[in-house]
Amino acid sequence: MPTVNIYYTNKKSMRKLSTLAAKLKPFVAKELTCGNISLKPNEVSVRLIPSEGRAMIGDVEIDVTAHAFAERVSKQDKICLNIQKFVKENAPSLGSVYVWLQLCELGHSWKD
Fold first, then answer.
1. C-beta neighbour count of 27 within 10 angstroms
2. For the chain, what is the radius of gyration of the CA atoms?
3. How many Cα atoms sit within 13 Å of 38 on the Cβ side?
4. pTM of this prediction exceeds 0.85
């Protein structure tokens, strides 16, 4: 199941990001849906992680980790740009936003 780790430096962003997280789950599920794999929002985990040290590139950085299906690989940059656009449109006060999509082989403990 995909994970979305949202790192932020400004503690004042926490409330806005908490609200955004609920909207982000269905959006990411839609973006990562491909072929026979139709993701549901409850299959996407979103985590908010405060970052110390002031060494990040952006005010908000998002790491999305998901299985490397061929369709995702072929449109990985588009997926990142779509998520970035969604975040900026829904929370413009967050500042600069960068998104990375890490596609890999995944195992999980999810059972229905």
1. 18
2. 14
3. 1
4. yes
Give the type of residue at 11: K
d(CA 70, CA 2): 15
Both tokens assigned to 55:
């060494």
Q: Measure the CA–CA gap between 71 and 58, rounded to whole angstroms.
A: 28
Could you write out the DSSP letters of every residue in the chain? Answer: --EEEEEES-GGGHHHHHHHHHHHHHHHHHHH-BTTB---GGG-EEEEEE--SS--SSSEEEEEEEE--HHHHHTHHHHHHHHHHHHHHH-GGG--EEEEEEEE--------
- Tell me if 10 sits within 8 A of 97, measured CB to CB: no
102 and 65 Cβ atoms separated by less than 8 Å: yes
Give the pLDDT confidence of 18-70 residue by residue, as tens digits: 999 999 999 999 999 998 889 999 999 999 999 987 789 999 999 999 999 99
- Please name the amino acid found at residue 72: R
Residue 48 CA to residue 70 CA, distance in Å, equals 28
